[in-house]
Amino acid sequence: MGISGFEPSFLVGIDAIREAHGTRLAALVGRRLTGLALVRFAEDGEWFADCPVVLDFDGIQAELCHWKLDELSIGWDTIDTAAMITGWEWSEFTPEWSRSDKRLEPFVDQELREVTLLDWRPSGPDLAAGTVAVEFVFDAGRLRIANGLDENCIEVDAAQSANVRHRLGR
After folding, report:
1. Residues with Cβ < 8 Å from 89, sequence gap 6 or more?
2. Of 14, 23, 114, 155, whose CB neighbour count within 10 A is largest?
3. What confidence tens digit (pLDDT) does each residue in 51-69 have?
4. pLDDT of residue 108
5. Who contacts 53 (Cβ-Cβ below 8 Å, separation ≥6)?
6. pTM score over 0.85
7. How would you classify residue 169: left for phi > 0, otherwise alpha for psi between -120 and 50, otherwise beta?
8. End-to-end CA gap in the chain
9. Do 165 and 118 touch, CB atoms closer than 8 A?
10. What is the DSSP string of the chain?
11. At a CB cut-off of 8 Å and minimum separation 6, what does 78 contact?
12. Backbone dihedral region for residue 149 (phi beyond 0: left; psi -120 to 50: alpha; all else: beta)
């Protein structure tokens, strides 16, 4: 993707994600969301949802990226959002880091109250069954980085009832 420092390690399933990242995600509780970064196209400002969502919690950077139908990579302090994104000569669009997003603005400068992993378990057959979202709970509401079926999806409303909640930490 040409993103400096981004070397994803994709995991599948709630158990693998909780084992690899549960402790570090839980340790974010009590910290403030002090910044964010998303990749947008310079030409039209559209969010490129295939790239990682970077959330800065008082100097600890969580880097979330969904891929395929069920894979999630969570990185820690590896992506350099100050560096230019390179390697896009084949595209007519120019990706660049953006540090604002209207959906995320209400959460900036808010203290993180809880982190939950959500495991999508619908009652019937569903291609997305087993996908995992990471939910961050603030006084201002809930922010989820979910799998949009081969890309990231940002959700700020109430989670659907088919999600099984796995609260981390405290």
Report:
1. none
2. 14
3. 999 999 999 999 999 999 8
4. 97
5. 36, 38, 63, 64, 65, 145, 152, 154
6. yes
7. left
8. 36
9. yes
10. ---TT-----EESHHHHHHHHHHHHHTTTT-BEEEEEEEEETTT--B-TTSPEEEEETTEEEEEEEETTTEEEEEES---TTSPP---TTSSS-EEEE---TTTGGGTTPBEEEEEEEEE--SS--TTTT-EEEEEEETTEEEEEEE-SSSEEEE-SPPPTTEEEEEE--
11. 5, 6, 7, 61, 63
12. left
Beta carbons within 8 Å of 14's beta carbon, 6+ residues apart: 117, 119, 130, 132, 164, 166
**Ramachandran quadrant class, 68 (left: phi over 0; alpha: psi -120 to 50; beta: rest):** left
71 token code pair: 């894979």
Calculate the CA dihedral of residues 123, 150, 169, 163 and round it to 10 degrees: -20
Examine the pLDDT at 33 and tell me if it is beyond 80.
yes
